[in-house]
Structures are given as structure tokens and as C-alpha cells.
Predict the structure.
Amino acid sequence: MHIMEGFLPSPWWEIWILISLPFVAIGLYQLNKLVRERRETLPLLAVAGAFVFVLSSLKIPSFNGSCSHPTGTGLGGILFGPCIAAVLGLIVLVFQAIFLAHGGITTLGANVFSMGIAGPAVAYLVYKAGTRAGANTYATVFIAAALADLVTYVVTAVQLALAFPGTVGFLGAFTAFAAIFAVTQVPLAIIEGAIIMLVFKYIVQLKPEILTRLNLLSESTVQKLREAAV
Amino acid sequence: MYEVLEDFAQTNNLRETSPGLKLFIGTASILLCVSSPGPVAPLLVAASMTAAVLALAKIPARFYAKLLLVPVSFSLMSIAAILFITAGGTVLLEVPDLPLAITADGANLALLLLARVFGGMCSLYFIALTTPMTEIFDILQRLRVPAVLIDLAMLTYRFIFILIEEAGQIYRSQVMRLGYGRFRESVRSFGMLAGALFIRTWESGEALMLAMDARCYDGRFGMPGETRPISVPALACGLFYLSAVLAVSLSTGGLVII
């Protein structure tokens, strides 16, 4: 859920930029270190960023025929962790703002927080917890991606409700925004979870080296998953 | 769509104007839109940005109108919520049997937000349609944005075009094979598309790495910086326009900064 340019009034867009700033700074620091250690990370991160952009600009199939787009935040969070995902999110959101007028410059902070920080962080934590508990990999990916999507939209509703409490107060406003978004976002989260799960399945079947190199799956898990698929 | 936007950015009539000035006018207009307490100043920004895009940059009006329609659905949902949760003033419309009503205050706030969103969108498109991305990178570099961020952004930018092309090819061949006939199939096909795209992306990333290594990549990109001086009349026009918007904003209720 992108908040449009001009939608957040004055104290709030500055506040969200200040909140997002430290995450992006930590991400940049990690990125700098990674690039110095292993030079090949920069092109790989760049293609991942481009992938997220393209994925989010494609129309996703949805029940009610409305036009919806996947966020791709879950995948970024699972693959690279929340801080680097924040940097990728920042870049993707700037391009989306300038190319597509999705989001904007003043609302960049709020959007980076919901889509680049909160969503990926949840996906990352769920994925780590799931693999540690030894749960089914695909189920974990599905839950991680779907939850990342849901959290993104809940955070957006919180941001809007804080800025526009109206006369019903924060809670009332939050319920109103959440209810309106839920119509499109809950089915969307489920569909996106399924799609990211399929993406994961294809990677395991065709090019599992990517996942083992990023330390996401051990060789033995890949072996097990591939045997199960046959 | 993206290629077309970039084509216009490369060939429009304001191409030779200093990119710094265009970026400054665009962002300053956005800030004025957000800080204006009344809908007049944002609407003025929207009108003048549209005029600049159509008359000065000579972008076809039909194409520009189509662009403006893109984000409409995104904004309508949130505006609807605001319309109903803000009470106060006279009741304009009541939904029968539900505790929902549109009041004057809610309508005013919704109108203000629509005007701000519209003004902001026109300013964003002004930047997008007149300034090529490469020149924006150049400005960011001069503003001392960390080099690693700019390098990453430039590479990402380059790959977006390649990937969109590939995604389009995969999508078209899936449609030809009835991949989006039913809902279940379309989810499966979309997952297949995204998966195939990701793997191809990764492979082209690895290929790029080899190609860059072969050309002595040392972790930094060189950027050919060409500086175009800001012309004095253009700067004067820009400043005049911005102060006019500021004056309108001040005369219609002041400026809200925090």
C-alpha cells in the first residue's frame, strides 16, 4: 500500500522519514561491508531490486477483478534480511514514485517504513523462526510472505490513522482504514504468499545454489525438498 | 510505459534546461503543496506543472492524461475513509441505516487532500517527464549521497528495463497457452512467471559481474558528468513561479510547517 504524494500532512511525513532513517543507515553500513568483502553482491542486489520493482508493477490475479499489485517485500526480507531490504526498498520506492507516481517524495519515509522495513522484518523473523523449528519450508515461506503483506497494510493503516484521527480518535480511524484496505489486501496477501511460495519452489527445483549461497537453506534440506518433489 | 516515459525524458523540449533547476522546482512545488492549508495553492501547482509539461516540454496531452489516471484508484480508497471518519460542521449526506455520514469538515479535508495529491502527482510527473534518470543520479552524487547507494540504484535502473521486457515475453507466451484462463491457473502461471524471472535475473546478474570484472571493475562506477549552467532567465522564472505559489498559499490561510 503506497501512501500517495501529498497525502501525509506536515508533522507526520517528517516523523516517518526520521524513523526510517536509522534503518536505512544501518542497511547502508552493512551493504558497504558486504560489497567490500564480496564484490559480486552489488550486481546481485541490483537485480534483486529490479526484480522487486518489476514484480510490483505487474498486475496480480485477484478475485474481484480490481487492479492489485504484489509488494514483493516478503521475498526481499527473506533473502537479504531487513536492513538491506530497507535500502533496496528505498531505491525501488524512489523509482516507483518518479516513474509511476506510486507513492511520493514526502511520503517516502512512511512508505519505506511500511514496505521496506516492517514487512521484510516480519518475513525475515518468521522465516528464521520457521526454519529453526524445522517446519515445512514452503509453508514457512507462504506464511512469511503473506504476513509481511498483512503487516505492511496494517502499518499503513496505523500511519494514516495517526495522521487523520478525524473526530473518532486513533482507534476508530484505524478500524476505518483497516476495514477499507482489508477488502483488497487480505485476499492479496494470501495470493502473494502463494506466489512467493511458488517462486521458492522453482528456485529449489532449478537453481538451489542461490538459496544455499545466501545461507537460507542447507544442502541437506535442498536435497530433501527436491526428492520430495519427484 | 517505462520506456516511453524515459523516451520523453530524453527528448522533451526542456531537455537542455539545467537538471538541477528542474529538480529544484519540482521538489519545491511538492513541499509547497504539502504545507499549504488550503486547496488553492496545490491546485495552482497542478495547473502550472501541467502547463509546463504540455506547453514547455511539449509532451502529448493524451499521453499525459493517461498517466494522470494511473494512481487515481490508489488515492480514492483512502479519501473515502477520511470522508466518513471526520465529523463536524453541517451534515451533507447520510447513509441510510448505517452510522455513516459525510459532513462539511470531512468534505473539506478530503478536498484539500485530493488537491495536495493532485499537485504532488503533477510535480512528480514534471520531474519524470523532463529529467532523465542519469542526470538525477549525477545530481545525487553531487549532493554527497553515499556512492554505494547510487551504484546500486544505477544498476537496478538498468535492469528494470531488461526485466520488464522479459516479463512481458513470458506473460504473452503464457496468455497464448491459456495460462490465465481460470483463477487457479492464473495464480500458478503468475508464480511460474515470477520464479522464472527471478532465476533469469540472477543469472544475468552473475553474467554482469563477470563482464564488469573483465573490464577491471574496482567497485566504483565512473559517471561522465556534464554540467549545464543554470540560465538566469530560467532561474528567475522558476523563483517567480515558486514565490507566486507561496503568496497564494499565504493569502489562503498561511503555511503549515510542523
Q: What stands out?
A: The two ends of chain A are 38 Å apart (CA to CA). Residues 66 and 184 of chain A are 8 Å apart (CA to CA).
